[in-house]
Amino acid sequence: MNRKRFRRWKSNFMVGVMIAAVVVAVAPLLFILFNLIVKGAGSLSLGFFTRMPVPAGETGGGVAHAIVGTLLMVGMAALVGVPLGIGAGLYSAEFPGTRLAKASRFLADVMNGTPSIVVGVFAWTLIVARTKQFSALAGSAALAMLMIPMVMRTTEELIKLVPHSLREAALALGYPRWRTTVAIVLRTALPGIVTGSLLAVARVAGETAPLLFTALGSQFFSLSLHEPMAALPLTVFQYATGPYEEWHQFAWAAALVLILVVMALSLAARLATRGRFARHG
Amino acid sequence: MAESPPRLVTEHLTAVYGKFTAVKDVSLGFRANTVNALIGPSGCGKSTFLRTLNRMHELSEGGWITGKVLLDGEDIYGSRVSPMQLRRRIGMVFQKPTPFPTMSIYDNVAAGLKLNGRRPRGELDEIVERSLRDAALWEEVKDRLQASALALSGGQQQRLCIARSIAPRPQVVLLDEPTASLEPGGTHRIVELVFELKKEYTIVIVTHNMQQAARVSDTTSFFYMGALIESGPTRQIFTAPKQERTEAYITGRFG
Description:
Number of helices of chain B: 10
Oligomer: heterodimer
Distance between the termini of chain B: 28 Å
Radius of gyration of chain A: 23 Å
Largest interface: A-B, 20 and 28 residues
Shape of chain A: globular
Strand order of the largest sheet of chain B: 6-7-8-3-9-10
Order of helices and strands of chain B: EEEHEEHEHHHHEHEHEEHH
């Protein structure tokens, strides 16, 4: 009887430890969010989303140029990075023993652990130094380089989770191998891959360092890929390090917008996945 | 057993994984419209043997064979035979139900049909209904054909897999322990179904369940350590086996 009580106590204790760990893990996030809302929400207005910045000393203005810049550069990076990442992940999951798969898996892991500023410097030497021009294109390239290994490894892990028995069932029906891979394996793993890709998009949307040497940032609205372009993280960085109190307010508000964009993407990832499962039971 | 021409024949079939010989020199024949049970202890080679019959074995790492497998007299390992086309003529159902999770019940059944070109919707509907009826599942799913295949119970999923494998009208259906992962009710229905299916198909079934083998099959073949020990009419194998090891296995003294 005594032993039973001790076991129960031990169980409760461990559950308590785990709950504490969850609280400690989530608390900073909630604190950041709370802080951002307190300091940033005051400066948010419709104009903040639709207007351009105004010269220092004047009040009002917005970060429309940075919102558009972030969406444009992240969108282009995703257009290149997601298909390449999925393709590479599919290859290394389908042909896991090949030298190419092993090498690319290793490189992707190294890349995933590389500080993003290194990728920024690399994109600088590759594009900016050659074209002698900071550009949105260089920024997109840097972001795409960050996305590819993330998407690749997620895809690979998710494809490996698809039971071998499903593959066999398709082959036993007379499916050719490529069709088994596309119609059964990739299709089964797709909700997870969509989630993983959206999370990768969300992550690079918040990257500052790789854009510092590439897109540079700008005070002007621009859609040209060959010119410097503003982005939300850069705007946060520039305003936060500036000398004016008004700028600091703007930095908080821009940071809040950035985190909202990232949260919206994560939420979309959740909904996209859940919708798919719900429809099928 | 009704006399009919042998549909599927193996001649000195040996199946190898890398350096391990899983099936040794097996010569067997299966007549059309019969149920043929393969029995034997785990690891005796009966599943590997089954997988050589639709060329699934060669997809395993290091898998290759010597000898011949003849389907209606044609060597299925011949250079002009496409394994993909062959597998549309020899269906297979696995131990665990394997419905395609992203597909509806309807699409699961139609999955193999779409491989040989597009068919008119009406024809597809007809084949799906017939296959589900033949698999004794139609009455349970006819009102929810667009629901996910995962919404079905394990036994229903297995019957769905049988429907999927017979939809392209194969000549032979291979069943690899189709009831091993099911509860008794589901098992019972599959066994009944196998008996019905032989009217149209030639069935080869691997099973661990002696009663099942005795009840549904016309012939029984006993495998041990990769070799075919004894094969014959089920009644004879179960009542008067010629080999001592067969008798020992059937009566449960080993295996």
